[in-house]
Design a protein that fits this description.
Elements lengths: L1 E2 L5 E3 L5 E5 L7 H18 L16 H15 L3 H15 L5 H8 L16 H16 L8 H13 L25 H20 L3 H6 L4 H10 L9 H8 L7 H15 L7
Parallel strand pairs: 1-3
Antiparallel strand pairs: 2-3
């Protein structure tokens, strides 16, 4: 684990996986959930079968599937109520002040528009993706000039999230993707959310008392389920083929929507239709 301006994971085979995170002195969550996100990527690469190493199949199958692993560990585990109960006493010990697990759970799942994509809550996160996808489409099609990108970004942030953008550092320049030539990457995060919802739903069915295990700090049952059903296969199956094998359906929206409604209904103490 090392420091970075923007968290990332990299690997040189299943036996050499490295992750980074970034730090905010005013709030620990940025570093913690950034690290858990990158751990999801790292566990995927580390779990690929030895027989596939150094072959064309010895890597994650798709960016969407890869992001499902990172988003699952970051949000469904990391920001879940069971793990909040594990985390609260650790935080209390470090900061030498009582931390109520329920308060922590509600705090890290608060829904509020934000400038930074990687710090966005689960309900508004996909709006950050839509904004970027629309702008990069316009760039590629020649309908938007690079010099006009900051203004277009700021206008779209106001329209979608109701936010004024104080600087390009928290606006158009916050991500490394476009500067790295990664055009079309951002939608994979939204796809990752959907796939994570499907895998989480099936894991809860397959693993006996999964959330009970997480509540006592036992994360290995979920890790082993993911390793058996997802990681070890590398790129042997397409994403849709893998999902068909594991959950019996291609990419679907409803499991993630149901998960989000259950969670936010619990956080805010309200009943959401379809939860």
């Amino acid at each position: 684990l090392d420091d970075a301006v923007h968290p990332f994971a990299t690997s040189f085979g299943s036996s050499d996986v490295r992750i980074t995170t970034r730090w905010d002195d005013s709030f620990f969550a940025s570093a913690l959930y950034g690290a858990m996100h990158e751990c999801g990527h790292g566990l995927y690469e580390a779990g690929i079968a030895d027989s596939l190493q150094r072959s064309p199949l010895g890597h994650g199958e798709s960016l969407g599937l890869h992001e499902s692993q990172s988003r699952l560990w970051e949000n469904m585990v990391g920001r879940g109520k069971p793990f909040s109960g594990v985390l609260a006493p650790m935080i209390a010990d470090v900061f030498e002040t009582p931390v109520d697990p329920e308060t922590l759970y509600r705090a890290v799942n608060r829904v509020e528009p934000s400038h930074i994509r990687v710090e966005a809550d689960e309900a508004t996160y996909s709006l950050h993706v839509v904004l970027r996808f629309e702008l990069e489409q316009e760039l590629i099609e020649g309908r938007l000039a690079v010099n006009d990108l900051p203004e277009a970004w700021n206008s779209r942030m106001e329209e979608y999230l109701g936010l004024d953008v104080p600087s390009d550092a928290v606006g158009v320049l916050q991500d490394v993707h476009w500067a790295s030539g990664l055009i079309g990457y951002f939608p994979t995060y939204a796809l990752g959310n959907l796939i994570a919802g499907q895998l989480w739903e099936r894991a809860r069915e397959d693993v006996g008392d999964l959330e009970g295990a997480i509540a006592v700090g036992q994360l290995s049952p979920l890790r082993e389920w993911l390793r058996e059903n997802v990681h070890r296969h590398g790129a042997k199956f397409s994403t849709d083929e893998l999902l068909q094998r594991v959950v019996g359906a291609p990419i679907r929206v409803q499991p993630f929507v149901s998960y989000l409604k259950r969670k936010l209904g619990d956080v805010y103490g309200i009943e959401l239709a379809g939860s």
